[in-house]
Structure formats: structure tokens, C-alpha cells
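Hi X.,

You mentioned you wanted examples for the new student's onboarding notes, showing what a folding record looks like when two proteins sit in one file. Here is a clean example. The first protein comes first, with its sequence line followed by its C-alpha cells.
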Amino acid sequence: MPLLLLSLGIGAVQDFISTHVDRVPGEIDIGYINDASLPYSGEEFVAAEREQLAALGYSLTDITAGDHDQAGTFRSVLDELDAVYVAGGNTFVLMSAFGRNGTGNVLVENDSPILIASP
């Protein structure tokens, strides 16, 4: 699993994606895991992060890991994607969602490139 950790902005995203996904941006579907940003819905930084990613030409699929009752359903969603972007926000909320239903293990086992942001 290729992994990119982001601490400020999405500057490295395009190079990372182009290195690990053999398609043009308009054909790339990125899963946008939003659990960490949920406590801040409506905040400007949440919308800005998502809009910056979409402006690069990627198709974004919103995913809330905590909404999946079983790891298998989460795995099925990830299998349809070219990459996964874990939005910044509250890491405690994110880790709770990943730990509660096994989705964290599925994410680690996933073959798609993973990008993890921090606010």
C-alpha cells in the first residue's frame, strides 16, 4: 500500500497519484473518508480541503467509515476506487470509527494508494 502523509495542503497529491495510478485525473476516483472532519462540518477548512482535491480533476466519492456495520461492506467500497484520501480533522473520531467495525484493518490491507491529511 503506497502511503502519503500530508501535514499542510495537498501540494504533493498530484505527483503521488500520478506515480501510483496509471490513469489521467479525470478518470481517477478517490474515496474521500470524512470521519475526522465530521465534528467540523460547516467549517471553512473542511470544504476547502475537499474543493482543492476536486479542483485537481479527480472524482471524489464521500465515505464515512463509521457508517459501515461490517468490514466487508467497507472493503467492497474501497475495491471500486483508485485511491483513498483520509480527510483531516479530529483523529479521535477517525480512530473510533476505524476501530469500532474493523474498517481500519481493511484500509491497511487495501492495495490502493492512501493519502492521509491533517488539518
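Then the second protein repeats the pattern, sequence line and then C-alpha cells:
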Amino acid sequence: MKKLAIAALMTTFVLSGCSTMGMNDERTMVVEGEAMDVKVVSIPSFKIEIAPLKAVCELQASNGTMVESECLQYRQTYQKNYTLLNGNIQGFTYEPNYRYILDVRQEAVMNEATNVVKPVWILNEVVSKKAE
């Protein structure tokens, strides 16, 4: 019985190691004006501020062309400048002319088609919502 338990435990470790093998969890992002490879990790909680107005941005369509759209502007609560968010925050419904403080989490999700991990933001809590 003891040998069976040890074999099951070892199999668990081996299989859990294999599940992440070959997974590309790095992305190239522009950080302070320079392209850098960064690792995508899960973050259980962090606070961001959402600007009261969206900004014009360019997003890549499914066919690879760039299209003009409107994106949320966010910054971490200690930052001065806003950054464009190319995507949505799951569970969050934006209303214009309100400044939000949100508690969000980031999960690393693998795109099965490309085998590339991408960050997905999910709302934990709306901390505050103030009219501008």
C-alpha cells in the first residue's frame, strides 16, 4: 500500500510538470518605450483606476489588420500616466463619466490555437465609483 501511495504521488508530480512543458508564457510588451519580453503570471489582487473617458486606440482584428476602436484607460493607483487596455475586464461594466477604483486579478490563460499564454483581467470588486 505504501509503494502504491508513493507511486501515485510521483505520478502526480511528473504529470503536473508535463502540463506546463512547451507552453509559451512570455509576451513581448512595450515597457517605458522599449520592447521587452515579460513573463505572464497570475496575480490574485491589485488595484487600478479607470479613467472617466475611453481613448482612441488600434486593435488587431481576427484577420490581422489593425482597426480603430475605443479602449479603457487605466493606471495603478500610484502611477501618474494612464495606459490603454487592449481588451476588457471580465465582470466589469464601464459607464462613461465615472472614475473607478477596481480590485482586479490577472490570470494567465493559454490560447489553445497558438499555444501562447495571455493575461486576462477579472473583476474582484468595484472599490469606488465617482461621477466626474
